[in-house]
Amino acid sequence: MLSDADVQFVDRRYGKNAVRLLYVRREGIRHYIKEVEVNTKVTLNDTRDFLRGDNSKIVATDSQKNTVYILAKQLGIQTIEKFAIDLSEHFLKQYSHVTNTDISITEQPWKRIQTGGREHAHAFVETADGVRYCRVEQQRYGQPKVTQGIRALKIMKTTQSAFNNFVNDEFRSLPDSTDRIFCTIVNATWDFHTLSGLNFDNAWETVKSSILDVFAGPPDTGVFSPSVQKTLYDSQKLILSKVPQMDKIEIKFPNVHAYEFDLSKFKSFGFTENKQVGFR
Ligand SMILES: O=c1[nH]c(=O)c2[nH]c(=O)[nH]c2[nH]1
C-alpha cells in the first residue's frame, strides 16, 4: 500500500456534468431562448476530502447544479461565454477555499421559425448547422481564460475539390483524384489573449462564416481545394486576420468519405468503367 506521501495529485477538479437548462426571456410578444448544458468544476485548496474523508470543504455537486439555475434566473444568459464567466466568478467569490474553476457550456442550435417570410415571435426550430460551446477556466486572482468552439457543422461540396500528387509508395492504394466530393464535420476551438473589445456572438459568427466562405467560395463557381490541409489553413488565416483578440485556433476537418459505387459489373444497364472508384 502506498503512503499519502507517495501520491501526487495531478488533477483534483470535481463538479456537476450535464446540467440542462432552458432559459426563456420574454420581451412583450417576442421571446428569446437558450437551451444549454453546463458542466461545472472547482478545485479546493486542500486535499482533506480525498485523504481523510473530511467533507467540510466540499461544495456539493448538487449545490453546484442549483447555482446554475439560480444564477441563470438572477443574471440571465446573454451569451454562454458571459454566463460561464458569471458562474466562475461566483464560485471564486462565494467560496474562499476554491482555487480554480472550470466551466464549460454547450448551446443547442435553436433558430426562429420563419413563417410567411417573417421570423416567428416565439416558435423555434433546432437546426443542424453547428453547435456552439465554450469553456472558462479561472484561477483565484486571475482573469478568466475563455475558449470558444463550434462542433457538428457538417458541410459538403460536390466538385472543386481534388487530392493528388501525394506520396506514392508501396503503402498507397488511393488513386489521384481531380474532382471528388469533399465532406466533413467541422470541429473548431479557439482562445483569446484578451477579452477587451470582444463580442462573443460576433467572434463565433465570424469563425463560422469564414469557414463556410473559404470552403464554398462564390455561389456559382465555388473555389478550388487542392486538399483538406490547404482549405483548413486558408480558413484559419482568414479567421485570425478578422478577430484580433484571438490567440490561436484549432480546426479539425475529418474526411467523411463518399464512395463511388462501382456499377461497371452491370453492363446490361449500359454502365461502363467508373472514372474513379473507392475512397477519395
Ligand atoms: O485532402 C486530403 N488530405 C489528406 O491528407 C488525405 N488523405 C487521404 O486519404 N485523403 C486525403 N485528402
UniProtKB/TrEMBL annotation:
Sites where the protein binds urate:
61-62, 163, 180, 228-229, 255
The active-site annotation reads: 16 (charge relay system), 61 (charge relay system), 257 (charge relay system)
SUPFAM superfamilies in the record, alphabetically? Answer: Tetrahydrobiopterin biosynthesis enzymes-like (SSF55620)
Q: Do the record's keywords include Oxidoreductase?
A: yes
The record's GO CC annotations read: peroxisome
Gene Ontology terms: biological process:
purine nucleobase catabolic process; urate catabolic process
Question: What broad class of enzyme is this?
Answer: oxidoreductase
Q: Which family does it belong to?
A: Belongs to the uricase family.
Output this protein's name: Uricase
Q: State the InterPro entries in the record.
A: Uricase
In terms of superkingdom, the source organism counts as Eukaryota
Lineage, highest ranks first? Eukaryota, Metazoa, Spiralia, Lophotrochozoa, Annelida
Look up the record and name the pathway of this protein.
Answer: Purine metabolism; urate degradation; (S)-allantoin from urate: step 1/3
- Function of this protein? Catalyzes the oxidation of uric acid to 5-hydroxyisourate, which is further processed to form (S)-allantoin.
Gene3D superfamilies reported in the protein's UniProt record: Urate Oxidase
Subcellular location(s) of the protein: Peroxisome
Q: Which GO terms describe its molecular function?
A: urate oxidase activity
Please report the organism this UniProt entry assigns to the protein.
Ridgeia piscesae (Tubeworm)
Q: Which reaction does it catalyse?
A: urate + O2 + H2O = 5-hydroxyisourate + H2O2
Q: Where does 5-hydroxyisourate bind?
A: 61-62, 163, 180
